[in-house]
Specification:
The protein has twelve helices and eleven strands. It is of the alpha/beta class and about 350 residues long.
């Protein structure tokens, strides 16, 4: 009897101790692969997102960021997240060409005016279609840059000037280059500077922010403002499905609420970076060339078959091609009006 009493007293005492000094919950350690260099505004935005998750979970989640493709390269980031090399990854859908037939529509040359519009369009588009091609990850959010423009070592004012030039391009922007008579060269942004510097390529199709963010204004001299056929490149922020499913419910809610806040922050960063890129290239004495009204119409007509070709290809894969393009046009129109620059 005395033994049972003593044991009961010990158990009671330990219960009091544990209630007074609760066992500290184990920190959830995650890693995050970002292909942007650490100095790039989008890498900083991603790092700030990770820090905010840590703050709001009161240190329960710790995310170590690996920028500059140091954990997985840009074209390996998605697969690396699926396989668990990284827990979270940020890169471009276009770097895995053919893998995301529905999401590829976002990159069509449909005249995106700015990054905020492109970012909101991309997220609404994803919610509208819930593509099966992304079911092997948890999509946290998507962001997308402002209009892709043409940047070259020699001036391009007409389609004839561009004919036969080797132009760095990825995903559907490669089709834009080809439609305009250029020779597309598939290459990620990390390789573009050296290729332009050495003349391996004679130009690049990319948002103007890269002229500062990736220092490409140092190796090009001209920008052709062809924003009426401006495409975007949609970029994912995704999480390994197993890691996501293993998070407590309250932690998952924190991830989702912070991600909803950060999505428009990325859009604003894109637009701010475009302004910086424009100012930077002009500060180096480079020129920005505006197409004439007649030439502009020629460029729009030249890329129209790309959109029509996408519809046919999507239909062949069981996707509603015309519906997809129609929805994109509506979303671009809606958000273009919302984020129009004051005149």
């Amino acid at each position: 009897m005395k033994r049972h009493l003593a044991a009961s007293i010990v158990i009671a005492l330990w219960t009091v101790v544990l209630m007074t000094f609760p066992v500290e919950a184990k920190t959830i350690q995650l890693n995050y692969s970002i292909f942007f260099p650490p100095t790039h505004g989008q890498a900083k935005a991603g790092a700030d997102w990770a820090k905010e998750i840590e703050n709001r979970t009161k240190g329960m989640v710790k995310i170590t960021v690996f920028p500059g493709g140091s954990l997985t390269k840009a074209d390996q980031c998605y697969d690396g997240t699926v396989s668990g090399i990284s827990d979270i990854g940020m890169s471009c859908f276009a770097y895995s060409r053919g893998r995301f037939p529905l999401m590829e529509a976002l990159d069509l040359p449909m005249g995106y005016p700015n990054g905020m519009t492109a970012t909101y369009v991309a997220n609404d588009f994803f919610k509208r279609f819930q593509p099966a091609e992304l079911q092997d990850v948890k999509v946290l959010y998507i962001h997308a840059h402002g209009p892709g423009l043409l940047h070259t070592r020699k001036p391009v004012r007409t389609i004839e000037d561009l004919k036969g030039m080797k132009i760095r391009s990825t995903g559907l922007s490669a089709k834009v280059a080809a439609a305009l008579g250029a020779v597309p060269v598939a290459m990620g942004q990390p390789q573009a500077y050296e290729a332009l510097q050495k003349g391996v390529v004679e130009g690049t199709i990319t948002p103007i922010e890269t002229l500062k963010g990736w220092k490409q204004a140092e190796v090009v001299k001209f920008t052709t403002d062809c924003s009426d056929i401006g495409y975007t490149t949609a970029m994912f922020v995704v999480m390994n499905k197993k890691k996501w499913n293993g998070l407590p419910d309250d932690i998952r809610k924190t991830f989702e609420s912070v991600s909803a806040e950060w999505m428009p922050r990325h859009g604003k960063v894109w637009d701010d970076l475009d302004v910086e890129g424009r100012n930077f290239t002009l500060s180096l004495g480079n020129e920005i060339l505006k197409l004439s009204a007649q030439e502009n119409e020629r460029w729009i007509a030249a890329v129209q078959p790309i959109i029509e070709e996408y519809i046919v290809a999507a239909n062949s894969k069981g996707l509603p091609g015309a519906t997809i393009v129609g929805e994109l046009k509506k979303l671009i129109s809606t958000y273009s009006a919302r984020f129009a620059k004051p005149s």
